[in-house]
What does this fold into?
Amino acid sequence: MQKGIELLRPIYLAKWRYILQSKVLAMDEVPMKVGLKKSAGRQPGHMKQTYFWPIYGEQDEVAFT
It folds into this structure.
């Protein structure tokens, strides 16, 4: 998995730099439920709340931070 991520990293960084050159940028906070919460007093199987922040460029590109 890590080798695949490292192979894709230059593509992601190039896309990120291109988006940041846009004259107009948009960013959004997207809530997601993922994984299992493992904390004392909680029932097993509960999902944990997390957030993603996609950034959107003027040429309809999207990248996630």
About this structure: The beta strands are 26-27, 30-34, 48-52, 54-56, 62-64. Residues 2-64 form one domain. Helices lie at 2-20.
